[in-house]
Amino acid sequence: MTGRGGGRISRRGLFGLGAAGVAVVGAGAATASAVTREAREHTPAAGASAASGSVPFYGGHQAGITTPAQDRLHFAAFDVTTRKRDELVDLLQRWTAAAARMTQGRDAGTFGAVGGDPEAPPDDTGEALGLPPSGLTLTIGFGTSLFDERFGLAGRRPPALADLPAFPGDDLQKDISGGDLCVQACAHDPQVAVHAIRNLARIGFGKVAVRYSQLGFGRTSSTSRAQTTPRNLMGFKDGTNNLKLEDTDMLREYLWAAPGDGPDWMDGGSYLVTRKIRMHIETWDRAPLAEQQAIFGRDKGKGAPLTGAAEFDAPDFAKTGPDGKPVIAADSHVRLAHPSSHGGARLLRRGYNFVDGSDGLGRLDAGLFFMAYQRDPRTQFTPIQRTLSAKDALNEYIKHVSSGLFACPPGVVDAGDYWGRALFT
């Protein structure tokens, strides 16, 4: 079905017409419908209007970082299999065009899932037919391994993209760590997020291969003051002191790469650290409530620090109990992760819960897929994690099994731009 100039009607626009609308199209109103579609799809929204709405794709920063955290995640890391720089650039251009379409509720390609040549594979896999955009955001990052000799990028690697050190207690699995590229798909509908990653992988066939992917649910951080603080799988509120999109001054200081930080292609970008953290759920579930609260340093019900009455009360690390010991223990998570323990360093966290079935021994393979954005991991994530891995009482109940570090470039300005253009020009 075509509109003005042979353009195809959006598959989601078509499903949104309803029976009466389809009858009108059949009666000869395809042109008017296409014009309406073009106006709707090329007018930027002010923001995600609801869980089903769209988030603008173009802007100075990539969406999916300060965007209010959606409910679902599909994260994928890719290995680049081509050794040709022009093929990698072409892929990034095609990915960007597809991402711009899908985040606005359109098919990944021009002819969609059911159009085009019936003897050729469709331009879209089709599982999102009829679904709204669902707040989909797609955020890309470039891993440390991309900056080797293959594409002539070694001299353009940012100093902040330094390999993370080994931390005490790490049990990292190589096959689910690292990656040349990553794409973070967040949405309120898991099928929309899966559809997005699936289509990027399809477009990249022969040039990239999926190294690993991770599904997540139940966001574990709030990235806006309009959101309530969620809970992790241990039952505690997580990310109370997270950076929020409303914290404009702190975002400039702790989130966005600035001129002079490194190569100018990263100005306005950010650095993403990922860590898959498995929780020993069954052991944790047998721990007494008092022990659980002492480990976190918070009240499990209210989320308040043990020295306060409400979630957002500032913890009083100097306060002691009748026994003369600190009310918030020296090895508690809230104390060791607090900015005051790291010269004020802060992170913007966008983690998600995961449950990947069981491990064959009757134990849940579950935990937290940690994601944190920052201006410089060397002065933010690394010192924080060094302290946590050495002293945190929570370590008895968790294990870090994967790790990744990615440079996420600034946003795509318009339809003539593409992800990482400044890196390759």
From TrEMBL:
<dbReference type="GO" id="GO:0030313">
    <property type="term" value="C:cell envelope"/>
</dbReference>
<dbReference type="InterPro" id="IPR006311">
    <property type="entry name" value="TAT_signal"/>
</dbReference>
<keyword id="KW-0349">Heme</keyword>
<dbReference type="InterPro" id="IPR006313">
    <property type="entry name" value="EfeB/EfeN"/>
</dbReference>
<keyword id="KW-0479">Metal-binding</keyword>
<dbReference type="InterPro" id="IPR006314">
    <property type="entry name" value="Dyp_peroxidase"/>
</dbReference>
<dbReference type="InterPro" id="IPR048328">
    <property type="entry name" value="Dyp_perox_C"/>
</dbReference>
<dbReference type="Pfam" id="PF20628">
    <property type="entry name" value="Dyp_perox_C"/>
</dbReference>
<comment type="similarity">
    <text>Belongs to the DyP-type peroxidase family.</text>
</comment>
<keyword id="KW-0560">Oxidoreductase</keyword>
<protein>
    <recommendedName>
        <fullName>Deferrochelatase</fullName>
        <ecNumber>1.11.1.-</ecNumber>
    </recommendedName>
</protein>
<dbReference type="GO" id="GO:0004325">
    <property type="term" value="F:ferrochelatase activity"/>
</dbReference>
<feature type="domain" description="Dyp-type peroxidase N-terminal">
    <location>
        <begin position="62"/>
        <end position="217"/>
    </location>
</feature>
<dbReference type="Pfam" id="PF04261">
    <property type="entry name" value="Dyp_perox_N"/>
</dbReference>
<keyword id="KW-0408">Iron</keyword>
<dbReference type="GO" id="GO:0020037">
    <property type="term" value="F:heme binding"/>
</dbReference>
<comment type="function">
    <text>Involved in the recovery of exogenous heme iron. Extracts iron from heme while preserving the protoporphyrin ring intact.</text>
</comment>
<feature type="domain" description="Dyp-type peroxidase C-terminal">
    <location>
        <begin position="229"/>
        <end position="412"/>
    </location>
</feature>
<dbReference type="GO" id="GO:0033212">
    <property type="term" value="P:iron import into cell"/>
</dbReference>
<dbReference type="InterPro" id="IPR048327">
    <property type="entry name" value="Dyp_perox_N"/>
</dbReference>
<feature type="region of interest" description="Disordered">
    <location>
        <begin position="220"/>
        <end position="239"/>
    </location>
</feature>
<keyword id="KW-0732">Signal</keyword>
<keyword id="KW-0575">Peroxidase</keyword>
<feature type="compositionally biased region" description="Polar residues">
    <location>
        <begin position="220"/>
        <end position="231"/>
    </location>
</feature>
<dbReference type="GO" id="GO:0005829">
    <property type="term" value="C:cytosol"/>
</dbReference>
<keyword id="KW-0456">Lyase</keyword>
<dbReference type="InterPro" id="IPR011008">
    <property type="entry name" value="Dimeric_a/b-barrel"/>
</dbReference>
<dbReference type="GO" id="GO:0004601">
    <property type="term" value="F:peroxidase activity"/>
</dbReference>
<dbReference type="GO" id="GO:0046872">
    <property type="term" value="F:metal ion binding"/>
</dbReference>
